[in-house]
Write the structure tokens for this entry.
Amino acid sequence: MGKLRGQNSRPPDAAAAASLLQSCGRAGDLRRGRALHAHLLLSGAVAASTFLSNHLITMYSHCADAASAVRVFGAVPRPNLVSWTTLVAGLTQNSMHRDALAAFAAMRRADVAPTQFALSSAARAAAALAAPLPGAQLHCVGIRLGFDTELFVASNLADMYSKCGLLCEACRVFDQMPHKDAVAWTAMIDGYSKNGNLQAAVLAFRDLKCEGLIGADQHVFCSALSASGGLKDGWLGRSLHCCVIKAGFELETVVTNALLDMYAKSGDLEYASRVVKIDCGGWNVVSGTSLIDGYIEAGRVEEALETYTDLRRQGVEPNEFTFSSMIKGCAMQALLEQGTQLHAQVIKTSLISDSFVCSTLVDMYGKCGLISLSIQLFNEIGYQTGIAWNAVINVYAQHGHGWEAIQAFDRMTSSGIRPNHITFVSLLTACSHVGLVDEGLKYFYSMKDEYGIEPKEEHYSCVIDMYGRAGRLDEAEKFISEMPIKPNAHGWCSLLGACRMRGNKDLGEIAAQNLMKLEPGNTGIHVSLSGIYASLGQWEDVKAVRKLMRDSRIKKLPGFSWVDANKKTHVFGSEDWSHPQKEQIYKKLEELSERIKEEGYVPDTISLPLNLDDSAKERLLRYHSERIAVAFALISMPATKTIIVKKNLRICADCHSVLKFISKVESRDIIVRDNSRFHHFVEGRCSCGDYW
């Protein structure tokens, strides 16, 4: 390079200079490339040679300096076909996709007929932007120029259509190709997979195998494995794994990650963990996150936490997807302490500005009972995406804040974000939990009329639940008869629960019969029927149901409640005296029983489906799991700390009444999360307003 710096040195010939520029481009050596450019400018070689200008454009593009490439192009007096092609390709290569399409359009206006290489680059730009209109225009240009069946052009056009979600057009381009290589097949398989047409992706992979191109490209395996994972087809996944081994790609990191992700999504977590051990490089953030997500989806949160710890121990930094999966797991099991620790780590890694991570935090704090912190986090999100709005609407729904959920929905739509089917499930749930039937129906019918969203099973179930909770059982029955689809298990379960609350035997039996067809192993069906018969004093029917349960070996699902205290989770069952502090707990329960009676508590024995006298029923009610958990928390936790109890079943009417009184006599805030919602007990009142 010493020679190049001398102003009076003799300029190299064009071929030598072009070779040097190519060398700089391949090495990504921008400093050396600029020095050579400066020398060529001083020598006057660039101004006299479009050939050298084209090489300069290529060099700057390869060195990721697209702005300099554009300036060089702008200085060319008469750009030729190569100049235009190089510019379009360089802009696409540097992810300046809109500029690439604009350059291609300018090329056409300059009456320069594009080559297949320029057309392919422009098609890749349209694919990256998921822009079907410019993509279709490029397709028309290709047809006019006779490039539409060229392998390179057609592959990019098929990829463009698939990335725009236009699979029919992609298939048409693909089918018209006289010859197909691994790139073309990969484009189609990837398009099918990413557009949710997983079965078609697998069939396309099979056809690729028949063509004898199976070992040609590692990326095709990644696409096929992704489809297999989405189908949760473990047998197919193992077959693909064999193909990967035969093709020699098993140790490729990208393929290993795809294998692990496939096994995790298929629920085969043992195989997934084995795949990690095969890779000599050990963990990476993609493989670790896939395994964590697999554990979370399987409800194996403890193993997810262990995997996360191993990941950190090996020096792998978690990304936004890792944190989102981990926080989701904490939300599922209301693990507040672990969730709070993850929140701190999110702040340390500067991912707190990520909208997706923040949305999972909003959801986690909401599911752990801390609604005020959940709302605060939501308000701190810089750009509130649809995911964030869905999270906060769901938090309001689970905590019984119906009007707030409606206000959030109105703010969401006013900000220009369109709701989706998840939004409406949360919104309808919110209306159901507070008795806003008319408002809920308005939003239900607006789904199709205003937003073009076809209601699904879960939306119909929400309406059934809405009618049932309000005691409007005749309207619920009419609604079911007019539904275009049959209710799912949740819909019938909601109706059965409402019939139990209202003592509607006839409709309850219809709901039970339909629910048994869908979930024959659901023990709650018999328990609810027994409750309906007991409320009507039909004890012979109660006995018949219990006999049926015994004969069928159906056992009632036991109720459990758990509370976190002193860095440990304490689990209690009804009449459970296995805890080391059982004597203190029993003493506290007796004390509470006396104090709440003085405040006016009267046991609600009607809700207990047993043919016993009231005193016997009262003794049974006194030792329900949530009461034991609250009594334990009162003797174990600081007096200023809110008690948060989680329960696997619906809280009974009597316990609901008792906890209101306990919150008053103890001057203590108590939060109970049962299997459908939250109850906040404060000073003798519940956030549900006794409507649940």
Remarks:
- The CA atoms of residues 234 and 268 lie 7 Å apart.
